[in-house]
Amino acid sequence: MPEAPEVHHVVQYLQRHLANQKIVQAIVTYPPLIDNMPAQNFCQQIQGQHFRQFKRLGKYIILELDDYTFVSHLRMEGKFLIVSSREEFEQLDQIRDRKHIHAQFVLEDGRIVCYKDTRKFGRMSLWPQQDDLHHLKPLSKVGKDVLDPTLCAQDLLKKASQRTIPLKTFLLDQSVIAGIGNIYADEILFATRLSPYCMPCDLSKKDMQNIIEATRSILMRAIEAGGTTILSFSYGSNHTGSFQNQLQVHGQKGNCPICGHEIEHQKINGRTTYFCPHCQKLKKKRSRKNNPIKE
DNA sequence: CCTTAGACCTGGAGGC
DNA sequence: TGCCTCCAGGTCTAAG
To answer: Which sequence spans correspond to the domains of chain A?
Structure first.
């Protein structure tokens, strides 16, 4: 579900409510949730730790504890909610909520941080602390974050060389840029007027610069709007975003806001992709074999 | 090395 | 109402 703007708000929310709180007990009721060790060990190790620092890299949530780094990925539907007491937990709806809560972190003050994940796709792991986040195993292949100011056209050009996958798929590759998901990928492509079927290796440095600028602009606006809520994104008890009202193509059934042509949607590597076939152009570089570049 | 299909899960929506 | 199929914002892996 969540892409970088949504994860950004989840991290802020956790920070506001959990900074310096002590975890007195951890309960995991769906053991596969814990990626890198038996759930029992995870619970033992995390017990007694305090939440210290809260960070995000791409779609990953990074919680620095006293002695460990706690990494969480929400995948499609993971959410954190905080209840004030065991009584409040028991009052949650069994079918809608409690059934899907797979981990609980009981705080010293009696509150319980609940991890809810209907589809059970999300994962958590606990690691010895590392100064460089990229040294943590789950983050070792993650590229620069979408909002990393050092991200530049040259980075993308390098990663795009020889790549013949659709540009849409390239933007979703977290080792290229971390934090873009299916919704924002469509919006970025529309903003740059590039077809999702462009081949990354055919793009120029200028195209890459345009992609970076569109990405920053769209993601910043999405963060300001509180993220995008289409299916189920929320955090805390009921916080949702409103960027879905500003989407230009993703999920749209009508006409292109620029040219009026009907918005199309097709599956590209398994992901539904919305685009305007009239505005969004295929680019081809044909200079490899002595053929001079046209246009 | 690169690329793609399938797997992982559940619940909601729409067709009959 | 029930049953069936398809769909969903993500990522890992196995196989070509």
So the answer is: 4-139, 153-275
Query: Which residues are in reach of strand C, CB within 7 A?
Result: A 1-3, 6, 58-59, 73, 75-76, 119, 121, 138, 141, 172, 174, 181-183, 227-233, 270-272
Write out which nucleotides of chain C lie closer than 7 A to a protein Cβ.
Answer: 7-12
pLDDT at A233 over 50: yes
A194/A51 Cα distance (integer angstroms): 43
Band of the pLDDT at A1, cuts 50, 70, 90? low
Q: pLDDT, tens digit, for every residue of A209-222? A: 999 999 999 999 99
State yes or no: pLDDT of A192 exceeds 90: yes
Closest CA to A22 of A66, A75, A83: A66
Domain A153-275 listed as CATH 1.10.1740.10: no
Q: What does the alpha-carbon distance between residue A110 and residue A132 come to, in Å, rounded to a whole number?
A: 33
Q: What is the pLDDT of residue A236?
A: 77
Asked, colleague to colleague, whether A4-139 and A153-275 share their fold, the answer is no
Q: Which are the catalytic amino acids of A?
A: 2-3, 59, 271
Is A286's pLDDT higher than 60?
A: no
Q: Please state, in angstroms and rounded to a whole number, the distance separating the CA atoms of residues A18 and A65.
A: 11
Count of beta carbons in the 10 Å neighbourhood of residue A27: 14
**C7 C1': nearest CA residue:** A272
- φ and ψ of A165, to 5 deg: -80, 165
Distance A231 CA to C8 C1' (A): 8
Check pLDDT > 60 for residue A73. Answer: yes
Residue A30's Cβ-side half-sphere holds a number of Cα atoms within 13 Å equal to 20
Q: Please give the class, per CATH, of domain A4-139.
A: alpha beta
Residue ranges in A19-108 assigned as alpha helix (H)? 39-46, 86-91
